[in-house]
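TEACHING EXERCISE
Course module: macromolecular assemblies
Task: Read the component lines below, then compare them to the predicted structure of the full complex.
Student: A.B.
Group: 4
Components provided:
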Amino acid sequence: GEEVAQTPKHLVRGEGQKAKLYCAPIKGHSYVFWYQQVLKNEFKFLISFQNENVFDETGMPKERFSAKCLPNSPCSLEIQATKLEDSAVYFCASSQSSGSGYNEQFFGPGTRLTVL
Amino acid sequence: AQSVAQPEDQVNVAEGNPLTVKCTYSVSGNPYLFWYVQYPNRGLQFLLKYITGDNLVKGSYGFEAEFNKSQTSFHLKKPSALVSDSALYFCAVRALEGRRALTFGSGTRLQVQP
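Instructor-supplied answer key:
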């Protein structure tokens, strides 16, 4: 597709429950990024993929967060045992591949996760 | 480490007047700079980017940005503001070589009054 698609739009979980978010990147884009936007508009990078391979996971809280990008499937971000502080909007972005790496990222509409 | 500062939480401007949204950055090596706009309950929309070359970059919706290496700034500008420009604006810098993640500023809310 021509836009990054994210599902669901909203997700409500009780503390300790699992949450799974999905992202379909723009067709032909090789890179996928996940960001977390918390209160005060702060963006935090979580993880990026080059095709189905993890490219950069320096932002991932690995003890509870995991992510995948498998061929012919939407990418996913999963949070095991959610905590109150996981409440945020999670954005997925994709970009084309080029040797320079200067391509802009295109963002999806986000998934708002509320942990109660 | 790299960082982006947007010193103004909010900028107010009258419709028809020029607008400037400020951004300064800190990064090792060459900076790759971006501006995005976020409307309520929407994702980020790309406005423009600076990679190399001309210091004045033109982007979508009549916006432009000026790269100033000596002042490490990348201010967003528009000659004549529209009420529909009211939104949240983010400046971002691309991370170090080998990484492609963006580091964002804290955002500036632009309010254009009729």
